[in-house]
Write a structure and sequence with these properties.
Length: 107
């Protein structure tokens, strides 16, 4: 089951796959979570992707263009970060430490 929102969304989105074309505020808890705009809150799933993440991403793979908060997963990837990554592979492309295993951070 796919939960797809073409605009902005608030509250809780769940299903097999959750997609928000605009901004999202709240909890996304699907196997695959995708927010094309800004995600304020929590993404919890196997794969999480946000244009801009503010909050927490918990999953096997977490991807964001800009992350402000915490990413916890096996693989964490972001272009810019203001916060902490915890996982096996942590990449902050424009960070002080572009790649670190276990823990990575940037201000």
């Amino acid at each position: 089951l796919v939960s797809h929102t073409t605009g902005n969304s608030m509250a809780w989105q769940t299903g097999g796959m959750g997609i928000v074309e605009g901004n999202f505020q709240g909890l996304q808890s699907s196997w695959i979570n995708i927010t094309r705009g800004k995600c304020d809150g929590v993404q919890w799933g196997a794969f999480n992707q946000a244009g801009s993440g503010h909050g927490v991403a918990l999953g096997l793979v977490n991807v964001a263009t800009d992350m402000r908060g915490v990413q916890i997963g096996f693989v964490n990837v972001t272009e810019t970060m203001h916060g902490l990554q915890v996982g096996l592979a942590n990449m902050i492309q424009k960070g002080e430490h572009p790649f670190l295993p276990i823990v990575n951070w940037s201000r």
